[in-house]
Amino acid sequence: MAASLTRISYSSAFTFSASKTAVFSSSLFASSIKVPTFSSLTVKPLCSTFAPHAAHAISFTTHATSTPASVLDTSTKTFHGLCYVVGDNIDTDQIIPAEYLTLVPSNPAEYEKLGSYALIGLPSSYATRFIEPNETKTKYSIVIGGANFGCGSSREHAPVALGAAGAKAVVAESYARIFFRNSVATGEVYPLESEARICEECKTGDVVTIELGESRLTNHSTGKEYKLKSIGDAGPVIEAGGIFAYARKTGMIPSLSN
């Protein structure tokens, strides 16, 4: 890029009288300013087209170990057992108090110990405990709750503790979103929603059956049936054992054996 300097000269002088009227003086002074001027510039692209090197090309393939979606079908899935009934706004501190969050679920011994503390934070008004003293597993495989189940702080330990204790599903009027998502991500329990307020019509110790395909809960102790909302696409993820297990089984990511 070429540039040349052009000299521009001008002269001016003026003074102000007492009447604030500008009067040009007879004396002139000159100033010179050097202003650069540029010749035209032509820019040429390095190349007309761009193509990535063949060695850097990206392709996506499923792995040979992928599991057909039909294998993860939950339409015939059922749960049968005793239910444990709680009320509204059961928060994660009640499900698993913060003092037990140091337990590491990936360690089998600590996973079992974590389950032994499930729902230990419930107030003393719950005369029947979810897990009997000196036990690590519960006899209640289904938890029935009210509105806003799993509210409070975000902790994956909450659904993990329920699953480690032996619970298979939670049926609630509504959930805190983070608990619902953590349940799906970990694959520990099925978070099912009821269309009616079942927690007021069932009591702890009732024998119940959940049929996922029919989206139905039957209380055999009272003879009543209740409609549940469909678990939808979350069902196969939970059935696989969580989001990462689902991704491996369906070929989205390599299996651990590869």
UniProtKB/TrEMBL annotation:
The keyword Lyase applies. It catalyses: (2R,3S)-3-isopropylmalate = (2S)-2-isopropylmalate. It is found in: Plastid, Chloroplast stroma. Pathway: Amino-acid biosynthesis; L-leucine biosynthesis; L-leucine from 3-methyl-2-oxobutanoate: step 2/4. GO terms for cellular component: chloroplast stroma. Keywords: Amino-acid biosynthesis, Lyase. SUPFAM superfamilies: LeuD/IlvD-like. Coiled coil: none annotated. Signal peptide: none annotated. GO terms for molecular function: 3-isopropylmalate dehydratase activity. Its main location: plastid. Transmembrane segments: none annotated. Residues 139-192 form the Aconitase A/isopropylmalate dehydratase small subunit swivel domain. GO terms for biological process: amino acid biosynthetic process; glucosinolate biosynthetic process. Its EC number is 4.2.1.33. Belongs to the LeuD family. LeuD type 2 subfamily. Heterodimer of the large LEUC/IIL1 subunit and the small LEUD (SSU1, SSU2 or SSU3) subunits. This is 3-isopropylmalate dehydratase. It comes from Gossypium laxum.
